[in-house]
Amino acid sequence: MFKKGYLSILSLVMGFTFFSTNTFAATDIVDNDALSSAPGYSEQKGNWTYKTGSGYYNDYRIVSATVNGFDTDYAYIWRFYAHDKNAAHYVYLNNKDFTNPRTAYQIDEFGGIVYINQNTAPGGWNFLKTHKEWNHMIVINTSLTTKLGNVGADATKITY
Ligand SMILES: [Ca+2]
After folding, report:
1. 59 CA distance to ligand 1 centroid (A)?
2. Residues 98-131: pLDDT tens digits?
3. Closest to 143 in 3D by CA, of 123, 107, 110, 113
4. CA distance 106 to 115
5. Which residue of 24, 59, 101, 122 has the fewest CB atoms within a 10 Å radius of its CB?
6. How far is the CA of 120 from the centre of ligand 1 (A)?
7. Rounded CA gap, 103 and 115, in Å?
8. Which tops the pLDDT comparison, 55 or 8?
9. CB 155 within 8 Å of CB 57
10. Quick one: signal sequence residues (predicted)?
11. Under a CB-based contact definition with an 8 Å cutoff, are residues 84 and 112 in contact?
12. Measured at the alpha carbon of residue 83, what is the angle toward residues 82 and 88, in degrees to the nearest 5?
């Protein structure tokens, strides 16, 4: 009886130790049109159409990559409040109307560009890149995005 209880406490301590040293313990999700309670905020440049009925939290933004001014005047930006993390960056894609074949995602300020085919991306969280610097963000860079189909903006997340 005593031994059994002792072992349970030992397992519990080992469990806590495991979780506290897990480097990917936190997840911050910032959606399009993020709520004020989100662990970051989202911004848009240009006229992205707001739609519901699909997507993470049942909404998303979409724009044609061939719309006038797309290259120069459009962007979608997700910013995270977390700083200086070795963070894995992800974008959520699960929408048949997202058809752009080469969407350029800028990682943080200095993390470079990752290209995703929104048309063929698997439904759900798509990994972009792990990168560490003070400010964390994901930005759709329209200048580097191929001018075909529709570009969608839904949720993003970082884990660290
Ligand atoms: Ca959404």
Report:
1. 4
2. 999 999 999 999 999 999 999 999 999 999 999 9
3. 113
4. 9
5. 122
6. 19
7. 5
8. 55
9. yes
10. 1-25
11. no
12. 75
User: Which residue ranges make up each domain of the chain?
Assistant: 23-159
Integer distance in angstroms from the first to the last C-alpha of the chain?
40
Q: Which of 30, 95, 36 is nearest to 62 (CA)?
A: 95
Q: How many angstroms does the Cα of residue 121 sit away from the middle of ligand 1? A: 17
- pLDDT tens digit string along 52-68? 999 999 999 999 999 99
Interior/surface letters 107-126, b for 16+ CB within 10 angstroms, e for the rest: bbeebeebebbbbebeeebb
Token pair, residue 26, equals 């936190």
Å from CA of 71 to ligand 1 middle: 23
How far does residue 146's CA lie from ligand 1's centre (Å)?
Answer: 23
Report field, pTM of the whole predicted structure over 0.90:
no
**H/E stretch holding 13:** helix 2-20
Å from CA of 18 to ligand 1 middle? 33
Sign of the CA dihedral running 136, 90, 28, 154: positive
Q: How confident is the model at residue 21 (pLDDT cuts 50, 70, 90)?
A: low
Tokens of 35: 């709520």
